[in-house]
Design the sequence.
């Protein structure tokens, strides 16, 4: 079923009896060409691009719970491509370009809103760093603009520009950045993949891999063995738990990141602002809630909930820069589990086991990467060569010294 | 979270800095034949278990001791706290 304005009007006039399920509830077949483990944004996007761009068939996505129940539904919905390093920036710019055409491509309203993102500057050194970053972005075909304090006050009059510790001295804006309705990304990719024949199999947990003579033949699941030509792990947050079943140790620690939403307010915050120095960032959802977050809790966790010191830290950061936040009540807070990699950058690569592929290590930057991650992973799966924007995301970069460390923090995952 | 410091008693985890897996106590021998491979593992690969995890915490806002904390990563429950010094000696590290 094709969605359109005409269809909405027709259904409105006929009692909404013509809407079918957006995707089939598939039962697993005995054998597929591609089995993708993980029905989150990245896994569903991988399936979609495998079918659409690379003309592959016999594809299944296995999800242990329900699709979109993990990190694609737990993030703060921001898209941007304001990276510095050559290994990253072309990839994230490719992703932003895919976001720009996503809704027409999927025939699904994902509420892609390019309302702009602004990184605040508080010192001369930070201005120099952001000018360098902006130039790197422009060199890679992205947009970037350095804003003065006056330009920021014009757009965001409520910001505290005279904070004693972190006065606002300007900002780096990316006007093409913004927000997307995250659940709709999972559902849109699921529906579009399903329409191209992909089997989406929910409540199907992978319990092991069948590996014979160094080749992965398929996966053991809670719904029986499923054979596969190629098996693709795509379970960021749980990557170590899954790959341990194939005998692999990863350059990853799992950490909890909390996020928050206030009660619904009238339009207040037109774009996304990030206060990196104070560990706080914020945007306003289309329902009116202020959506904000900050740092990791900082210790290994699979609990999907954090602790109160970080809540206090994030709210203090918010109050320092955005004082009228104090008049809003916090509605909800939650946690998601991040694959924190050793250099803060992801991995999209083959493994040492033939037929077993890996996508993970997204730290807390996975949501914005969803389309490009799916595209690049599909490219790797279909052609056995990395996509031109994802050539740096290799497993062996840690052994060879080719880390992609945007923040220059070294191999300490909780600092990225 | 409260960390029951062996010397100071229960302390707020916010006083501590987290380092990571307690296997970091065992730095490889730099003269070993396969030192490069050992250091690659040591520097970059982690077990990252869901369940009990032995990990290093540094009491930066306190007595600046290193602790080995045994904690469940699925519940955050702490079941054992030891001085890293005692653990290292018991496991054969001389200093």
Sequence:
């Amino acid at each position: 079923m094709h969605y359109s304005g005409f269809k909405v009007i027709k259904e409105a006039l006929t009692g909404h009896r013509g809407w079918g399920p957006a995707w089939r509830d598939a039962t697993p077949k005995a054998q597929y060409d591609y089995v993708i483990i993980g029905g989150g944004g990245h896994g569903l996007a991988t399936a979609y691009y495998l079918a659409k761009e690379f003309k592959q068939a016999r594809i299944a996505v296995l999800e242990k719970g329900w699709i979109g129940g993990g990190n694609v539904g737990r993030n703060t919905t921001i898209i941007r491509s304001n990276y510095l390093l050559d290994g990253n920036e072309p990839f994230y710019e490719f992703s932003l370009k895919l976001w720009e055409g996503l809704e027409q491509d999927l025939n699904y309203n994902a509420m892609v809103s390019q309302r702009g993102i602004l990184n605040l500057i508080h010192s001369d050194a930070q201005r120099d760093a952001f000018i360098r970053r902006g130039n790197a972005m422009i060199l890679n075909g992205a947009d970037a603009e350095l804003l003065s304090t006056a330009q920021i006050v014009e757009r965001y009059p409520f910001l505290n520009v005279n904070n004693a510790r972190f006065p606002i001295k300007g900002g780096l804006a990316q006007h093409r950045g913004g927000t997307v309705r995250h659940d709709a990304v999972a559902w849109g990719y699921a529906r579009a993949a399903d329409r191209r024949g992909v089997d989406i199999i929910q409540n199907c947990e992978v319990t092991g891999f069948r590996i014979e003579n160094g080749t992965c033949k398929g996966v053991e699941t809670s719904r029986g063995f499923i054979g596969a030509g190629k098996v693709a792990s795509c379970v960021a947050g749980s990557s170590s738990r899954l790959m341990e079943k194939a005998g692999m140790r990863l350059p990853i620690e799992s950490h909890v990141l909390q996020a928050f939403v206030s009660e619904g307010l009238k339009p207040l915050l037109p774009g996304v602002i990030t206060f990196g120095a104070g560990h706080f960032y914020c945007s306003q959802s289309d329902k009116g809630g202020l959506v904000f977050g900050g740092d990791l809790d900082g210790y290994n966790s699979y609990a999907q909930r954090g602790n109160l010191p970080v809540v206090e830290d994030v709210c203090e950061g918010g109050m320092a820069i955005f004082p009228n936040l104090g008049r809003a009540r916090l509605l909800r807070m939650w946690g998601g589990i991040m694959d924190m990699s050793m250099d803060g950058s992801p991995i999209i690569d083959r493994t040492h086991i033939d037929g077993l592929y890996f996508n993970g290590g997204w730290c807390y930057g996975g949501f914005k990467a969803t389309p490009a991650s799916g595209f690049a992973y599909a490219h790797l799966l279909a052609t056995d060569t990395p996509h031109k924007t994802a050539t740096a995301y290799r497993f062996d970069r840690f052994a060879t010294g080719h880390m992609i460390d945007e923040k220059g923090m070294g191999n300490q995952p909780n600092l990225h | 979270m409260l960390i029951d410091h062996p010397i100071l008693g229960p302390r707020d985890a916010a006083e501590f800095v987290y380092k990571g897996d307690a296997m970091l106590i065992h730095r490889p021998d730099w003269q070993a034949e396969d030192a490069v491979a050992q250091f690659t593992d040591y520097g970059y690969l982690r077990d990252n278990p869901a369940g009990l995890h032995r990990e290093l915490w540094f009491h930066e806002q306190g007595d600046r001791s290193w602790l080995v904390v045994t904690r469940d990563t699925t519940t955050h429950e702490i079941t054992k706290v030891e001085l890293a010094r005692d653990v290292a000696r018991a496991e054969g590290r001389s200093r």
Notes: The mean pLDDT of chain A is 97. The two ends of chain A are 43 Å apart (CA to CA). Chain A has two domains: 5-13+22-77+182-250+343-415, 113-176+253-341.
